[in-house]
Each structure stands twice: as structure tokens, then as C-alpha cells.
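Reviewer 2 asked us to include a model.

Predict the structure of this chain.
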Amino acid sequence: MGRFGGFVTAAALLTCVAACSSPINGTLKWSAPPVTTTPATVAPKPKPKPFTPLVSPAKVTAACGFLGSGEILEMIGTGGDMVSTEQAPDPTYRPGTQYQCHYEDEYTHSRDVDLFVIISAFDPVKTVDNTATECKDAAVALAGIGEKALHCEWQSGFEAVAVAKRSRGESRLALIILRKTRADVYETLARTMAARL
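Predicted model (C-alpha cells):
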């Protein structure tokens, strides 16, 4: 090996020793590279429009206007974001007109609630009694609400709240189907809907 080869070998060895040595007897001097960031701007979430419910409208044309999603969350006693979607009226429903509003958690779809508003010429008490035939257990009467109101197990894990009254010359029934919760929630929903039908 010539003088030039020895020089290259010595330089490589010194570089390796300097780069590969561990700081056993010394202090490791390391500092994080400087971070230059601009503060992220997070747009504030827009506030929902204030909900103004329908109260005894002359003509019912939809269900979502009777009950706000924020009201439902407040009654249940939970937070989150719930959205409502008006469903097309069921043209096959007899003997009246059925409107439906579907409420769901905006992100997880875990708090599904359905509100049906049914308009017919039948006696309000009979419409609630007919609804009770679909219950999976004995219905619990909610005294003093509308002309008749009750709640009962609708399907496994779900409860139905039904309330009806005569308003503006027609029978109006509200049927709310939601996940099981506290009994006071069912009563509050029934009272709220009875006042608005």
C-alpha cells in the first residue's frame, strides 16, 4: 500500500472513530432541530341556527319542524351533534298521511331517533290504542298529556312514545322511536309534542 493509500486509510479510520464513538465518558450533546411552524388556525364550528318549532300549524307538511335535534339531546341529557333529515311521506300509509323525520348522531349514528307525525280523521284515543298493539310489552300510560299518551318497548333496545290529540279539525299523532332511556325523557317528549301538534 502506498503512501496515498495509507493516508486514505488513516483518514477513514479517524472519521469512523470520531463518528462512531459512544459518549461513555462524555455528555451527549444533541438538540432538536429548530421547528418553524405557523400556528394552525382552526375555524370555529358554526353555531346551529336557532330552532323555532312548529306549534299547531294549520296544515302539517313535514315532521322535522316539530322537534329540534338540539332539543332531543337536551332532553336525553347528552351532548354531541345530531342532524335531522326529513323523509318522503309514505304514499302507501293508510288511513291518513304519515310524515317522518330521522335524527342521527352526525358522526357515529349511535343515537337514532325517528319522529312520525300521522294525520288522520280517526279518534286520537283510538290512534294511540292502535299504535300500542305494536308494543312488545305492556304500555305505560302518560296521564294528562294530549288526549292519550303512552310509552312502551317497541323493539329490542328501543322505546316508542305515542301521543295524539285533535287539532285544527284532524287527529294528529306523534310517534317517537328512540333508544331506551329514562322515563322522564319519554314524558317530556310526549308533553312537548302534545303542545305542538
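The mean pLDDT is 81. The radius of gyration is 33 Å. We have added this to the supplementary material.
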